[in-house]
Amino acid sequence: MSVGRPNETLLRQQLAQACQRIWQRGWVANHDGNGSVRLSRERILCTPTAVSKADITPTNLLILGSGGRVLSGEGRPFSELALHIAYYQARPDVQVVLHCHSPYATALGLTGTDLGQPRLPEAVVSLGPFVPTVPLASPGQDAVHAIVPYLAAHDVLLLVGNGVLAVGDSVEQAYLRLELVEHLCRIEAASRQFGQPGELPASMVSGLLKARQRAGLGPEARGLIPPADAAAIGRQAGTERNGQDASALQALVRREVARVIKGG
């Protein structure tokens, strides 16, 4: 028997718990960070703006409708909602988006350096063949346009000057991806004190990606992109190869962002 998605009550509990765990881990400060869950095609459950993640509860979350209009809850949606909408528009498999400023991942992003291919075999299965860093962009539509070329192939993005964005088909999966990428960035920082860390052999990576696909992880397992192109897309995001697809998605996201702004 197939198991359906959790009901709204449980999703509220899960999102609130994830926010509190993010705060407890020291991955946010002040009003940093945000999270959302896709409830349906036209409804999103999300954190309100200007509230510490320590204070997020199941009852103070918002439900948004078309154009970012608040359907229930008090307060306003966070200003980076358009980044979440971009993922939802690009990836039917994505049900949850979480964003935080975990210190090591944020620090690596500030250097403009890609985390690149995970150094640990298990991480390739969990995160894919390449974890990119999105170039610095101003908040708003510029930030949305900056991430668009990366959305199809990647479940985690380092954002220069803006922490980490992770997605999943559940709150737990998105949270664990935040946790894993922070762990990998700490290992990367430590290993560079002793020398240049090596990459996994290509033959090993190929086998790990097959295991990833068998486990139903990542967009390639859902037939959204060819498995052989997953790493290449990460390295070539923003190049001419992806230009047409990126432009089309940017146009779609631009319309949706305009709806959110008007609705907000």
Put the structure in a nutshell.
This protein is α+β, with helices and mostly antiparallel strands.
List the helices and strands and how they pair.
Elements (H helix, E strand, L loop, with lengths): L7 H17 L9 E5 L5 E3 L15 E3 L5 E3 L8 H10 L5 E5 L2 H8 L10 H7 L5 E2 L6 H7 L8 E4 L4 E5 L2 H21 L10 H13 L3 H4 L8 H7 L3 H24 L1
Parallel strand pairs: 6-7
Antiparallel strand pairs: 1-2, 1-5, 2-3, 3-4, 5-8, 7-8
Highlighted features:
single chain; 264 residues; alpha+beta; L-fuculose-1-phosphate Aldolase; 8-stranded mixed β-sheet; globular; disordered C terminus
Helix percent band: 40-55%
- Any low-confidence stretches, pLDDT <50, length ≥5? 238-246, 260-264
Tell me the number of structural domains: 1
Within CATH, the superfamily carries the name Class II aldolase/adducin N-terminal domain
CATH fold title: L-fuculose-1-phosphate Aldolase
Beta-strand segment tally: 8
Q: Using the alpha-carbon principal axes, give the shape.
A: globular
